[in-house]
Amino acid sequence: MERGNSMSNPNSGNQTIRQFCRCWFELRDAGLAEEFLADDIHFVGTGEQEYADGREDMARYLREDIREIPEPFQVDFSVLNEQQLGENVYVMSAAFSLKNSVYAWHLRCFFVLKQQKGRWLVCDLNFSEPSSSQGKGEHYPQTLVMENIARQRQELLNEAFAGGMLGYYVGDGFPFYFINRRMLEYLGYGDEKEFTDAIRGQFANCIHPEDRAMVEQLMAEQLDIGEEYAVEYRMCKKDGSYIWVHDVGHKTVSEDDRPAITSVCSDITAQKQAQKEILHIYNNIPGAVFRCRFDADFSVIDANDGLFDFIGYTRQEFAAMGNRMSAVIWPEDLAVMEGKLRSQLEHGNTIRNENRLVCKDGGVKWISIKAQLFTGEDGEQYFYCVFVDITDEKQVQERVRELYENELTYFAELSTEGGLIQGRINITRNYLESYLSTAEASIAKVGDTYEQTIENLSASAVDAKYGQDILRAMRREKVLSDFASGKTDYHFDFLRRGRDGGAFWSNTSFRVCLNPGTGDIIAFFYTFDITEKKLQEQLLYKIAELDYDIITEIDIHKGTHHPISFCGSQKATVARQGYFQEEIRNVASRYMDQEAGNEYLEKMDFGYMQRQLALHDMYNFIVEMRDEHGVQRIKRFKVFYINQDLGRVGVVRTDVTDVVRKEQRQKEDLAAALVAAEQANAAKSDFLSRMSHEIRTPMNAIIGMSTIAARSIGDDEQVEDCISKIGISSRFLLSLINDILDMSRIESGKMLLKSEKIPTDEFLNGINSICYAQAAARGVDYECILDPVLDDYYIGDAMKLQQVLINILSNAIKFTNEGGKVTLSAALHRRTKNDAVLRFIVNDTGVGMSEEFLPHIFEPFSQESTGTTAPYGGTGLGLAISKNIVDMMDGKITVRSIKGIGTEFTVDVKLGITEEEKLRHNKKKTTYNFSHLKTLVVDDDVAVCESAIVTLEEMGVKAEWVDSGRKAVKRVSDLWTDGKYFDMILIDWKMPEMDGIETARRIRGIVGPDVTIIIMTAYDWVTIEHEAKLAGVNLLMSKPMFKSSLISAFTRALGGKGRTGPPA
Fold first, then answer.
1. Residue 624: phi, psi to the nearest 5?
2. In this structure, is residue 692 part of a structural domain?
3. Could you read off the pLDDT of 344-372 as tens digits, one per residue?
4. Which domain range does residue 421 map to?
């Protein structure tokens, strides 16, 4: 630390300050520096919140300061002023700088020291930093104020225009010099480095490639003669898009004495776009826009593209012609043009003219030109001109003139030939100019108004409604409006009254024209008597309508056609007048299917017509088509030449739907009768064949067994066996005969249904008894599942219903192989006040039936396997009888089957509800209370388990089920372990793996005698009763389980047994 100026005598205060600063800044030792601090030191630093109060606070500040920058500083210390105030107070103001490898800092400081116990200690310390914003000689920061004003002005300038400033060195590619923040942001760059990387250090890379050569050339040319340049080009932004800029630059020299350019770039994209749009509009204005001198040749100064497009010359070709409009103006028009223009200029500076131009291709076009005369500062006169093409308009005017003259000629010629009625009305001036008529048909006189003439014409119509149509069509304002839109002709064919009281068919035509001389709208009208022609047409129409839909004439050479006559009701399906092939394609697509349409189009093709008619005088064909209501109809077409030399062909279409369909019905009836006869004959033969076989078999058995029995008299066992077999064969024979008789009664309507009580339990048990035995004999599993909500009784014919169900079930068992299963389920399908529909479903896992056979399953004598060797036998009458019985019961029978999988029959029959059942809710129910019972149902058929659970819950019993004996044993064991048990256990006898008796034995071994075990079986339990008792079974009961049978079983079981432990 250098020593600064001090007082004349060394002062220990001065030395203390220097030593304090040395410890703090040069040694960076907070501990040593702290030794120089008074306890009540106050410190203020250069920072906004930088201060400390007290020795401890200042010591903390010193440690933080040294920790932030531990590197020592070189201190250059200079005393500005020092003074000792009294014996114990010393003050000093000093300037010093702190420098190390990172910082260079200039400071001013003010010290206050006080002497305590012979030592000088720092008690007040203030640091400040000289302001760069305050200029030399200024007491206030005026420089800062001016800088702020300049900055604000620059910000306003930046906001006032789109763009910024940049600089580049003079050299190839314009090496980058600088760019301001405004320009960076406008181009989308974050900083200067990102911009220089993007342009690869050369500003030329920021200019559109197509503009670079132009920019370099213009800059060089302007800078060669001055210090500044101005140029417009496209500049690239960061996102790759381009903007148009107006660049104004001037020469300068950089800080390193290199020649450079500084420029200000303004975004002019919007102006360029506007200029482009204006130029586009200028060049695409219909017609031409140009400026020319008012001289003898009307020399063109400039023009839009429209002028050159119109005359067909390019700009270069027209320039080679001297840019003279006189070169393309029609000579006759050019000769009088100057005089016309000067005449108009006497009344103002605007002129209008119509003249012809000769185009490059030799064509002549009319134009309508409007021009404004201007005089330049140099006194030269020139026109601003706009013209449009009026060639078409001129041609229309010429055509109008020709039409009017032709109509006048025709009018004059007709008057000399004695036409019936003709006239000429000036619609614009509203009066009849000319009128010629016979006395009987006259309706007007010269001088009548247009309205009077038309009203008289409409009043002459026999049909008043048609007269009103004439009034509406010929209303004066409407006719004038129609003429303006291009409609000029009106035609009316109507029956008209004559002045003599007679009538005639009138053809009246109006033709409206423009009188080119006066501009008036003129209507010429003509009336002809077409009575004879009309009567012939009506006669032809009536004749045609009786026999034909339509008669059409075709012109093969022109490809056109027109209907001669057609039936009004067929109008929608008639090909409209026009190009024939196109119109018949429309008819085919709208009213025919694809096949009929293709045939129709093929046979109506002109080539096909000519080939056929070269061989035959006429050909015809039939196709189907829809009428306008979508109803399918059959049409016959006849095609013939009217005149072969002229290529005229006639086509007649006739509706033959009724005839063809009558023939088809007759054929179908005959075919059906033949098929029915053949089927009846085949059925009879088949029936006789089957019956002879079916009857022969039991008859042979009866005869054979009778012979054997006769020979075996004395051998009681042999005789008994023969008589038994004779009985079986007799019953089978009786069954055959009964089926035949039942079928006969059904077909004759003599079968009647009984109306009697059907006890549900007894009815189903009877069916089950028969089916269980049949199923057991074939090794088939049989199961019956009941809906617990079935009533105890219904009203119906029990025998016939049983016949239906046993018939279906017997077939199911017969057609199910050993090991298969047949299931009967009975449920309430729906119920009304007096009736109930019961649904019986029979499922089997048998051989099934094919889809082809199912539609015939209920036909008499039908069997999928036919012939006398059918593997399952039978007459084929059983299902036919069943179907008829179900129909008589107001029911329905349906079947679903899959070959090799099985079959399902669903039988819905309507049965009556008994009076007892209707009144059951009014009667006192039988008292029983099973709500304390816990029951387990064990059956391998889940459906049986679920049905039993529903029935038990209706009885108030808490129940659950398992589907095997093994699960039942485990469930009972688990509960018993917990000190719980089931009151009742219902076990099916026939179960796989572990049957019912074995399951009962194991459960009894677990629970002892305190649980009631009931075996359920569909079979005769006599054979298993003893074994079941030994296994610990309390009761045996029949399946299916009816509610009444369960109540009976539970009542019996509870009658002699009490509880010994807690229930499950």
1. -100, 140
2. no
3. 888 888 888 989 999 999 999 998 888 88
4. 402-529
